[in-house]
Amino acid sequence: MQIHSFSDLEGLRIAVEMERRGGDFYRRAAKVSKDPGTAQLLSQLAQEETGHELDFQALYAREKERRGQGDEGVYDPETSAYLSAVAAEVVFPGGLMALAGENALQSPEAILKEAIQSEKDSILFYSELAALCRDEHTKSVFMDIVSQERRHLATLQRMLMALAGPAEE
User: Fold this and answer.
1) How far is CA 117 from CA 81, 82, 131, in A?
2) Is the overall model pTM greater than 0.70, yes or no?
C-alpha cells in the first residue's frame, strides 16, 4: 500500500469529503429503508451531515484564502480520488451494503448506534489531524471541527436515549 502524505489543507478537504460521504450514505439508506420512521431518521441525519459539509467547506475556503491559494489549489482528479478513499475508510467503512448485511438499517436504534460510531471515528480522525498540524491556525480549525462533531455526537446519544425510554430503577 502506497502512503501518500498530505498537507493540513488537504486534511480540511478530507473533512469536507467525509461529511459529503456521510450525507450521501444516509440519503441512500433512506431510499432503501422499508420503515417510514427509519427513513425519516435517515433523512434527518443526511440533512445534518449536509449542514456540516457546508460548514466545513466554508472553513476550508477561508483557510485557502488565508494562505493565498486560489483555484490553483483545486485538486487534480487523482488527488481528489485519494482524498475520497481516505474519507471512505473513516465514514461507514464497507458502505451501505455492509450495514444492510448486518441488519443495521432495520431500526432507528441500530442506525443511531452506527451513526454514533461514525461520529466517534470522525472525532478521533480530526483530533489526530489537529495533533499533527504544523500550522497553529489550521490546528484551531481542526479543533473547531472536533467541537462540532462532539456536539453532534451528544445529540445522537440523546436521540438514542430517548428511543430507549426512561431507565428503570
Assistant:
1) 24, 23, 21
2) yes
For residue 6, give the DSSP letter.
Answer: -
Helix/strand/coil for 154: helix
Q: How many CA atoms lie within 13 A of 127 on its CB side?
A: 9
Cell numbers representing residue 147 in the block? 467541537
Task: Give CA–CA dist 9/56, Å, rounded.
Answer: 12
Nearest to 46 by CA among 64, 62, 72, 27: 27
| CA distances from residue 122 to 49, 66, 76, 91, 103 in whole angstroms, order as listed | 12, 25, 25, 7, 22
Residue-wise pLDDT for 59-110, tens only, equals: 988 888 887 765 444 556 666 666 666 666 666 555 544 555 555 566 788 8
